[in-house]
Amino acid sequence: MNLNRHTIVTCALTILDTYGLPDVTMRRIASALSVQPSALYWHFASKQELLAAVAEEILHDLPRLSSGESTRLRLWAARLHGVLLRHRDGAEVVWSVLALTPWEEGIGLTIEQRLAESGLTASLAHSAAQGLLNLVLGQALSADQRRQAQLLNVTTLTDADDPATTLDDTVAIFVAGIDQARSC
Amino acid sequence: MNLNRHTIVTCALTILDTYGLPDVTMRRIASALSVQPSALYWHFASKQELLAAVAEEILHDLPRLSSGESTRLRLWAARLHGVLLRHRDGAEVVWSVLALTPWEEGIGLTIEQRLAESGLTASLAHSAAQGLLNLVLGQALSADQRRQAQLLNVTTLTDADDPATTLDDTVAIFVAGIDQARSC
DNA sequence: ACCTGAACACCGTTCAAGT
DNA sequence: ACCTGAACACCGTTCAAGT
């Protein structure tokens, strides 16, 4: 009783971190809040809408990439990566929500604008922004999946790969490629 | 009756292409084959195992990146992208399966080997291979998601973005970055 | 060896009805 | 305005039993 959107989102995040995305179900959230599943539907029209709010919460600490910061792309990418890895399955949640968000309203747009400022053609800026975003999300998703595989020790992994290092390596490569394109 | 693994996989692929991944359920496949759901479990231990076979089928047409082909990375990436987009939700299926595959047995390893041959350090070759794979998978996943959004016309998209063009743009950037790293 | 039938423990969502 | 209770149409998986 006395529910509100924020309480529900917080509860969902707790379940996410503790048990993972497959366990984030409407019934599970409801039961954790000692409420009927149908009660959630007064506050959210669907599970998708609830997950969108969860994704927003995950991205809340992420600073905007403001004007003139095209040189800090690597830093910003690392921060996005860090924010995603702070929650279990964070990358998957954000990705599933970003999929339904028009590009114009997503975080990719600010990257595109910085790249356009820094002298890329509009078309290349768009492609590069999309690529960089997918690269960071993809690395985070892979890291999450490895984390899960290790929990179930399905795999005997030889690598003690640090996700943050690998992320920075790949982003550095991509940014070097962008700089190359700029000078042509 | 008279089921076998191949028949089941083919049926699953048909449902995938026609209705999308959410509709690929054990019960749905069984009913399409006029069989009880439990019958599938004689041939596959779980849905995961079935999906792994589906992913293998999707990747079947993909040529291996053989020795000395590091210069054809762009071409190979385009082929992988193409294979993924040939089936609805293809990228998602392959990604979910690749997540459970040890790196040593996945398609990423061959990329890593080519890059190592071409003069990258072992560590960088590993990162770059992972990044390139995630980039291609990520672009394919995004393209799939846009395709779906357009089917439900959730979004009024301004872009007539060609996925293949964008893919090649981003891969070209990444490969340029790799070449840069090689010459240092 | 290969499949049926029935069950178990779940899902998301809807909707009349209560307070 | 906000929540309960009950239902609907689904899931993946197991397992005794049939042939």
Structure description:
The structure is a homodimer of 184-residue chains. Chain A has 184 residues and is mostly helical. The first copy, chain A, has two domains: 5-56, Homeodomain-like (Arc Repressor Mutant, subunit A), CATH 1.10.10.60; 64-183, Tetracycline Repressor, domain 2 (Orthogonal Bundle). Chain A contains nine helices and no strands. Chain A has helices at 5-19, 26-32, 37-43, 47-58, 73-85, 90-98, 108-117, 122-151, 163-182. In chain A, helix 1 crosses helix 2 and helix 5 (73-85) packs parallel to helix 8. Chain A starts with a helix and ends with a helix. The relative contact order of chain A is 0.11. The model of chain A has no long low-confidence stretch (mean pLDDT 93). The structure holds a DNA duplex (19 and 19 nucleotides).
